[in-house]
């Protein structure tokens, strides 16, 4: 309505005066106002309806305003909004039970945080105390969060301004077939060489110093590059061999995103710790956490865990998690995510790759896909440089927005990351818009 739009204009003015935004130069930034959101749609400040193919920051896995989850939050708010973390709370107990049941192997204990970054901080703290070893291995081309240690394990340019030399973090080259660091020409070669590199890193850095290895089960913001067959099993083997805690970061890849409850399930591996957030309750109330193995739990059976948060296991957040997981089960959303990837997104993106010379690579699973755009298929020169945008990419994104799509873009990539319960029809509409926007990208391909 006109009133909503007027309210949105006022909110925008106040935002520019008083709100300090994440990752932005505050001056030239012109954020989009969202007046409302429902299912896979959002309405912008002018009242335009946009199809959300980004799931915001790849977190609204069940779409916006799912009625079962909204009702559960309202019910919990009527009963008990908050309680200190040392007490027992029914929503928290049930959320922990459900998560323990869904995670693989013996990850039977859950420490709740407020989001992904603090989950990563605590996972590393647990690993260091469990092993008595300080160093952390992490991959380049990764994202693990914005707090001090989480951004230091991160392998993306957001780390650069936050690097500090005593973080104890050492980065290794990931297995990334499309831009192989190991000159691999086959998947098997990439697995073998990336694992050899990782083992060399462990030996050269000193296994006796390395307490943790953190790796996204499928790297998300860094490009949804699927680990080649055998790689994750190899990482599990190496971490076991050298007494290193293996932390699988499932903050973005978890809760059905790639067509399994956890992406690590694609490889039948049990890490020692899993970090989660985002999809656990679709972000309706801030929540994250660490799923902990029996062995690491034992370290803290008789020894106090030196860490905690006022809002650990917040009742509103946990009630939202319980309702989200139940809705996902009742409505078969994880199965649907797998089906959408196999039957619709994968085939559509492969057809686009065949048709558009600007598409260098498409890859993904479930509702977790990346389209990597290049100026030249032979040299694989990206359409925007690592760590930056480009006028060309901005035009592609602009073309998507003009088609009524809210996209997720990062450097030279467009990610197709819709809600797991998006309708087939809406998904096809979104993919058709992408197909059209790629014509714009094709215009930048070198002759
Ligand atoms: N880990 C991964 C893999 C992520 O994708 C993110 C956020 O995008 C984080 C950690 C940080 O989570 P948060 O932003 O909730 O702190």
From TrEMBL:
EC number, UniProt record: 2.6.1.55
Superkingdom in the source lineage: Bacteria
Keywords tagged on the record: Aminotransferase, Pyridoxal phosphate, Transferase
UniProt GO molecular function: pyridoxal phosphate binding; taurine-2-oxoglutarate transaminase activity
UniProt-listed CDD domains: OAT_like
Cellular component GO terms held in the UniProt record: cytosol
Pfam family, one: Aminotran_3
InterPro entries linked: Aminotrans_3, Aminotrans_3_PPA_site, PyrdxlP-dep_Trfase, PyrdxlP-dep_Trfase_major, PyrdxlP-dep_Trfase_small
Family of this protein: Belongs to the class-III pyridoxal-phosphate-dependent aminotransferase family.
Protein name: Taurine--2-oxoglutarate transaminase
Lineage, broadest ranks: Bacteria, Bacillati, Actinomycetota, Actinomycetes, Micrococcales
